[in-house]
From TrEMBL:
It holds the Pfam family Glyco_hydro_30C. One of its GO terms (biological process) is adult locomotory behavior. It comes from Drosophila yakuba (Fruit fly). One of its GO terms (cellular component) is membrane. This is Glucosylceramidase. Residues 495-561 form the Glycosyl hydrolase family 30 beta sandwich domain. It comes from the Eukaryota. One of its GO terms (molecular function) is glucosylceramidase activity. Belongs to the glycosyl hydrolase 30 family. SUPFAM superfamilies: (Trans)glycosidases. It catalyses: a beta-D-glucosyl-(1<->1')-N-acylsphing-4-enine + H2O = an N-acylsphing-4-enine + D-glucose. Keywords: Glycosidase, Hydrolase, Lipid metabolism, Signal, Sphingolipid metabolism. Gene3D superfamilies: Glycosidases.
């Protein structure tokens, strides 16, 4: 393990500010039973300075691969016309099995493969042409982040301060992957030590007389977020709030979970509950950027058979009434009127039906929505056409994926598969697909979890981009998921715009090659290319303004290509 002092590391950063080459601390790679991770301790963590394009002929390719590349930087000169080859160690493991669940960019389908690597040894390297048309512009992409749950707050508190800072820096600093947004629960969520809400007592309290200050759990988060902003050098941190459940006395079943909805006599009280949270957070200098109408409303209607954590059910008709008659007017007529409101906050399969039924209940209800919030959990089975239809119905609404993780399905390992490249590939395909279908950004689920995928009160164990060694409290592990996200979030600053990017000769729909492109605010281009095949591929980038750029990309790898 590399262990230079923090003072030495930041001396390097200071020196690098005047250097011509971009500064980098490489991944300290450790093999695991599922793949490999990058290890950080209190005195060392990997970072990459944002690559600078110094002239129009320069191209920079940032690469990560199953064979161990993590944000490897390769530079080239476009004007010379030479192919750019991304070096990767030989891919010769004949015991390797290729298995993946693949989501096509235009439809959902499953491809289950179990193919020995030896079958690929004599296969020819395929060539592809990717056309890039900067003149064809689509949506703005500005939001990337993750969830600061009770579990995250608890785990961070258990770590040494230096290691906490590495988590903050890795996610939110420009040297890390450039997050700018967090999602947090209003009250408790499934990733807390126990279910909880504000004003649990007194009961039947229409004016919420006991909701006068932040809960100690939220006060702890506020202090941690202040530290995060300092370490990451963030002038602004966007915070999105969402409630999992009202206090039990407001609900039809009187319980935290199960089949239960908000009692209609408490509709205005529940709107006031949200406003009080906004006011108290602003008083702590942590203003809320956006809220949603509630986390996964179908959990308390049809999901209660398998959902055993905090939830509260809504039908779209009920939610339209509450939004139109209570929440919308309460927020818009308050000092918090600029807070954005996102609707649905549930799975893709509810689109666009949810909003059409809301409109049928209260025709003006959707006017209170600034955006639409989607969770990714069934995207491997449900195609993106439903999102396209919702966007067609409401083209001026922001569109965010607001929750994602792996390990929630019955057929998946519940908890981390430490170092799993396949799980990283799932993220790479999902981000590519969503950003190709109108999304303005993506908020992942827990920033960190422990080795088991928790802790939480309901033993709902899943995976996360960074895993904390909660036993030693001396290390954190950056997984392939972290770098998959980073290939987007780090290199797409706010106000990047998607541009037309098309694989011209991809005749086989099962070919695991994808690309999505963006023009950044400085005019440069960022292309994210994923090669999920078990062989290298040759790619000819045909840019409408720069001509053809030749690349050779290694197997099972993803790349961010930067040029002017």
């Amino acid at each position: 393990m590399k262990t230079p002092s923090l003072g030495f590391l930041f001396a390097l950063i200071a020196i690098s500010a005047g250097a011509n080459d971009d500064w980098q601390l490489p991944c300290d790679l450790r093999e695991t039973s599922h793949g490999s991770v990058c290890v950080c301790n209190s005195t060392y963590c990997d970072y990459l300075e944002q690559p600078q394009l110094t002239d129009i002929s320069q191209i920079v390719v940032i690469s990560s691969s199953k064979d161990g590349l993590r944000f490897k930087k390769t530079t080239g000169d476009i004007s010379k016309g030479n192919p750019i080859t991304i070096d990767d160690k030989p891919f010769t493991d004949e015991n390797f099995k290729a298995d993946a669940i693949v989501v096509d960019q235009e439809r959902a389908w499953l491809q289950l493969a179990n193919i020995p690597q030896s079958l690929f040894i004599n296969a020819s390297i395929r060539a592809y042409r990717i056309s890039v048309k900067r003149e064809q512009r689509f949506q703005n992409v500005s939001i990337f982040g993750g969830a600061f749950t009770g579990t995250v707050s608890y785990l961070l508190k258990e770590l040494p301060a230096e290691l906490q800072d590495h988590v903050y820096r890795s996610y939110f600093h420009a040297l890390g992957i450039g997050y700018n947004t967090i999602r947090m629960s209003i009250g408790g969520s499934d990733f807390d030590m126990e279910p909880w809400a504000y004003n649990e007592s007194p009961r039947n309290d229409l004016q919420l007389s006991n909701f006068t200050e932040l809960d100690p759990r939220d006060l702890q988060k506020v202090e941690q977020l202040k530290r995060l902003k300092t370490i990451a050098k963030l002038g602004e941190l966007k915070i999105m709030g969402a409630a999992w459940s009202a206090p039990t006395w407001m609900k039809s079943n009187g319980r935290w979970t199960g089949f239960g909805q908000l009692k209609s006599e408490y509709y205005q009280t529940w709107a006031l509950y949200h406003l009080k949270f906004l006011e108290l957070m602003r008083a702590k200098n942590m203003p809320i950027w956006a809220i949603s109408t509630g986390n996964e409303p179908l959990n308390g209607v049809i999901g209660f058979f398998f959902v055993h954590f905090m939830s509260m059910g809504w039908t779209p008709w009920q939610q339209a009434i509450w939004l139109n008659d209570n929440l919308g007017p309460t927020i818009r007529n308050s000092a918090e009127s600029k807070v954005l409101i996102f609707g649905n906050d549930d799975q893709r399969y509810t689109y666009p039906m949810w909003f059409r039924k809301m409109r049928s209940s209260r025709s003006n209800s959707l006017s209170y929505l600034d955006g639409l919030a989607v969770h990714w959990y069934w995207d491997e089975l449900i195609g993106p056409q439903l999102i396209d239809q919702a966007h067609t119905d409401m083209p001026n609404k922001l569109l965010l994926n607001t929750e994602s993780c792996i390990g929630d399905k019955p057929w998946q390992t519940h908890g981390p598969e430490l170092g799993s490249w396949q799980r990283g590939e799932s993220y790479m395909r999902a981000y590519t697909q969503d950003l190709t279908h109108h999304f303005n950004g993506w908020l992942d689920w827990n920033l960190v979890l422990d080795e088991q995928g928790g802790p939480n009160y309901v033993k709902n164990y899943v995976d996360a981009p960074i895993i904390v060694n909660a036993t030693s409290r001396a290390e954190i592990y950056k997984q392939p998921i972290f770098y998959a996200i980073g290939h987007f979030s780090k290199f797409l600053p706010p106000d990047s715009v998607r541009i037309e990017t098309r694989i011209e000769n991809q005749l086989n729909p099962f070919t695991q090659l994808s690309a999505v492109g963006f023009q950044r605010p400085d005019g440069s281009v960022a292309l994210i290319i994923y090669n999920g095949q078990n062989l290298p591929v040759d790619v000819a980038l045909d840019d409408s303004q720069r001509g053809v750029i030749q690349l050779r990309l290694p197997p099972r790898s993803w790349h961010t290509v930067l040029y002017k």
